[in-house]
């Protein structure tokens, strides 16, 4: 394997990791602040992608499509928080799992009913359609590179929001002791709606960005949701930093495993067996990573013990 | 006789009466539906030990359902092609005998439950939910990318497997077999629930500290419950694959795990017959709503949401009250 190909795959891993971070940030915040496990987070990802595809098809503008996906997912998030999710904060995890599973059924079938079962397509904007040449002569798709940059920017923005602003202080205080900050006069219900809508907007944004690389279809959110679970279990639930580290770890492990494992097995197995064993193992690799982390740190890398 | 016992007896009577009526009316499809309900009920009865008694919200029980299915698929496909599964170091051949397949299905899914449980039970609460879900996905992707047994396309079996003395291809006889196994599993769960082990398991759910302080280990109690639970769900998987004469990664998917939980919730969590009633209602909904609209999962979602938000305790809870609920 050449160095160029290796660097290209590393960039792919980074892009995948950054996208996973957008998805995991909301999940981990919602769990950290409200103590809620939200299976419907994948539906918000899907809503973002579908909105982007529909708006892009109607207006032809990718930027408008991105804005619309942010807004649609945030509004959908705020609406389900106000009507349903809010009743679940005091319930046990089983109720939360079931109610949000029910939401998945409703959102998925509702989307299928509105848009049909065929996948939609979202085109990469023309400016970013071609490759760019990176220092060292590596050609890399401009769109994927911009996902990496946007993702890193959003991550930096999240860190600034949580660590440097008044809202961030309230969010962190809400994680530490919700009765106390309610007693200090913070409207905790509004804070919860805000955090939920923020997480939803990030998920919808991730959906719109990814929608231009893969097809936009019903059920696209759940595989990503489960990967995001793996990410926050590895990183430690409630920790934004953990979500970032976990997302990059999972992104690199998955991408590099799929490339490298078949080649490693090819050293001592016949080619067809090497491909099947290698790819089967590669598809399990991140879960093995998760199991490994759990054995040594049952609360994740940055979890509070 | 308490009201719950009445409901339980009625549930079993309905599950038995519907296919008998279908037999007279010559409606073999209804018998197949009833068989599906009995098998789903069995899968739910398995999960109910972990979820209801143990308080372990496993979102990965489809793993055991699917492993049971694949145990049947792999054994039967090798018997079908007369190729042994392995020759060295010792010969293992495929089989078409149901009791043998059931044994293999239960042992393999119990072993899987031991491995997954040993790791997952190191954590609790929301971590446990996510980890069981993640392990479920791991096995699911493994089944998809492993080409030897059909990969994504799954594995078909031409003829249903054999049970001594019965013609399993006759729908009513196969239903009888599944119904008998369901009854046996219910008897087993009832015995476990009343045993010292069952009491300790419930105690570990209600107050872990107290259980620790009297010298019992919650981790071991839960692991044993998880393994038994996985084995029973695995048996249901083998029957389900035999019913369809087909097994595919769909049986391992996380939606399947969600559906097994739904059976329990509709009926009532922690109630012995909860999954039986839940599975019957699920099949009824699937059949009637599925006929009305292609998008029947919307109604299922709305119903589930309603039960979770407003009617905790499911159907049994609504009719029998909370007399049997301990907490």
Brief overview:
The complex is a heterodimer of chains A (305) and B (327). Chain A is mostly helical.
What does this structure look like?
The complex is a heterodimer of chains A (305) and B (327). In chain A, strands 1-2 form a two-stranded antiparallel ribbon. Chain A has a domain at 8-218. The radius of gyration of chain A is 20 Å and the shape is globular. Chain A contains eleven helices and two strands, in the order ααααββααααααα. With 305 residues, chain A is mostly helical. In chain A, α1 packs antiparallel against α10 (240-266), α2 packs across α9 and α10 runs antiparallel to α11 (271-296). In chain B, α2 runs antiparallel to α9 (218-244), α2 packs across α10 and α2 crosses α11 (274-292). A two-stranded antiparallel sheet of chain B has the order 1-2. The chains are: A mainly alpha (305), B mainly alpha (327). The A-B interface holds A 31, 37, 84, 87, 91, 93-95, 97-99, 101-106, 108-110, 112-113, 222-223, 226, 229-230, 232-233, 237, 276, 279-280, 282-284, 287-288, 290-291, 294-295, 298-299 and B 51, 57, 59, 119, 122-123, 125-127, 129-131, 133-135, 137-138, 141-142, 144-148, 254, 258, 261-262, 265, 269, 295-298, 300-302, 304-305, 308-309, 312.
Q: Report the helical percentage of chain B.
A: over 70%
Assess the beta-strand content of chain A as a share of residues: under 5%
Shape of chain A: globular
Side-by-side strand order of the widest sheet of chain B = 1-2
- Number of domain modules of chain B: 1
Largest interface (CB within 8 Å) is between:
A-B, 44 and 42 residues
């Amino acid at each position: 394997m050449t160095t160029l190909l290796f660097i290209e795959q590393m960039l792919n891993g980074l892009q995948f990791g950054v996208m996973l971070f957008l998805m995991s940030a909301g999940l981990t915040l919602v769990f950290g602040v409200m103590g809620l496990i939200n299976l419907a987070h994948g539906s918000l990802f899907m809503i973002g992608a579908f909105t982007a595809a529909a708006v892009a098809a109607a207006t032809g503008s990718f930027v408008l499509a991105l804005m619309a996906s942010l807004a649609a997912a945030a509004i959908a998030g705020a609406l389900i928080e106000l009507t349903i999710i809010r009743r679940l904060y005091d319930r046990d995890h089983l109720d939360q799992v079931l109610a949000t599973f029910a939401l998945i059924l409703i959102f998925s079938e509702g989307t299928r009913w509105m848009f049909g079962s065929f996948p939609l397509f979202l085109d990469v904007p023309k400016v970013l359609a071609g490759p760019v040449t990176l220092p060292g002569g590596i050609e890399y798709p401009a769109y994927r590179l911009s996902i990496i940059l946007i993702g890193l920017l959003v991550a930096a923005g999240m860190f600034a929001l949580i660590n440097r602003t008044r809202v961030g202080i309230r969010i962190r205080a809400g994680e530490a002791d919700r009765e106390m900050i309610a007693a200090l006069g913070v409207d905790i219900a509004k804070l919860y709606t805000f955090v939920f809508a923020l997480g939803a907007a990030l998920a919808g944004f991730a959906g719109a960005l990814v929608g231009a690389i893969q097809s936009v279809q019903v059920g696209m959110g759940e595989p990503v949701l489960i990967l995001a679970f793996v990410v926050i279990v590895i990183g430690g639930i409630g920790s934004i930093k953990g979500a970032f580290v976990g997302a990059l770890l999972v992104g690199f492990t998955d991408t590099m495993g799929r490339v490298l494992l078949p080649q490693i097995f090819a050293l001592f197995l016949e080619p067809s067996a090497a491909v099947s064993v290698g790819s089967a193992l590669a598809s399990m690799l991140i879960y093995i990573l998760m199991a490994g982390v759990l054995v040594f740190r049952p609360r994740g890398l940055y979890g509070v013990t | 006789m308490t009201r719950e016992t009445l409901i339980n007896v009625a549930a079993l009577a309905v599950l038995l009466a519907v296919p008998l009526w279908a037999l007279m009316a010559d409606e073999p499809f209804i018998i197949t539906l009833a068989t599906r309900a009995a098998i789903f009920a069995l899968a739910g009865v398995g999960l109910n030990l972990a979820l209801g008694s143990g308080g372990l919200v496993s979102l990965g029980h489809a793993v055991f359902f699917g492993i049971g299915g694949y145990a049947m698929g792999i054994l039967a496909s090798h018997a079908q092609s007369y190729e042994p599964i392995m020759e060295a170091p010792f010969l293992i051949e495929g089989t078409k005998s149901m009791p043998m397949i059931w044994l293999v299905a239960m042992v393999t899914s119990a072993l899987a439950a031991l491995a997954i449980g040993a790791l997952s039970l190191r954590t609790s609460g929301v971590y446990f939910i996510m980890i069981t879900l993640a392990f479920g996905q791991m096995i699911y992707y493994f089944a998809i990318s492993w080409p030897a047994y059909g990969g994504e396309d799954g594995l078909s079996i031409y003829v249903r497997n054999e049970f001594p003395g019965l013609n399993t291809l006759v729908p009513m006889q196969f239903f009888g077999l599944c119904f008998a196994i369901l009854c046996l599993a219910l008897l087993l769960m009832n015995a476990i629930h009343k045993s010292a082990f069952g009491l300790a398991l419930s105690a570990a759910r209600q107050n872990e500290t107290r259980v620790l302080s009297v010298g019992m280990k919650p981790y071991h109690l839960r692991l044993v419950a998880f393994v038994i639970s996985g084995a029973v769900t695995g048996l249901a998987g083998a029957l389900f694959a035999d019913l369809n004469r087909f097994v595919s990664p769909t049986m391992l998917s996380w939606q399947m795990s969600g559906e097994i939980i739904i059976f329990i919730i509709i009926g009532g969590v922690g109630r012995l017959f909860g999954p039986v009633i839940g599975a019957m209602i699920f099949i009824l909904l699937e059949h009637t709503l599925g006929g009305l609209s292609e998008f029947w999962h919307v109604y299922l979602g709305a119903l589930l949401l309603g039960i979770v938000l407003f009617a905790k305790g499911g159907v049994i809870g609504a009719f029998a009250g909370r007399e049997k609920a301990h907490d």
